[in-house]
Amino acid sequence: MSILTRFKDIMASNINALLDKAEDPEKMIDQYLRNLNRDLGNVKAETASVMAEEQRAKRVLAECKSDIEKMEKYAIKALEAGNEDDARKFLERKTQLVEQQTTLQSAYNLAASNASQMRQMHDKLVSDINELEAKRSMLKAKWSVAKTQQRLNQIGSSVTDANNTSSAFGRMEDKINRALDEANAMAELNKKPEDDLEELADKYEQKTSVDDELAALKAKLKHGE
Length: 225
Description:
Layout: H1 3-12, H2 15-21, H3 25-80, H4 84-189, H5 193-224
Helix pairs in contact: 1-4, 3-4
């Protein structure tokens, strides 16, 4: 792959798409910057080479045009001097140079086009690097906030699970209390009638005992008078 093709791909790259696919955008930013700076060094060297070739092609073309003009001038001077054969030779050389000029013009046009593309790619890379350098701190800060939010979401999920567990225990406690109340109610319903009579009898027996004590005290007071 030629360097022109390679860096056309770089110009078409979309950093946002690359970051979206990255598992760790923070590391991706640093790696992408390292790659861009390395590529920029290569582009600078290649751009200088292509621009030098453009200047060489331009100089050769200019020399060819100058030689064509010289041959025509010499042919005119030869004719003025009455030397037609010499004029013919100068014109034959001019014809050769005109043919060369066509080839040299094509070579220069290609060199100029390549130089223009390389300058565009160089400027694009410089712009990408400057833009990414400016965004790096902001992107890293956003990534840090995003990771913090993820941790908070995880903690929130744990708290929700704990609340769900607490609610489950509360439901179990309600169920146990309800079962206990039902058991007590059933025990109350299952109580025998004679048990009630015994309780009633105990009540009156206790009252009779108190009456006896009260009578004894009255008698004691009476004797004391």
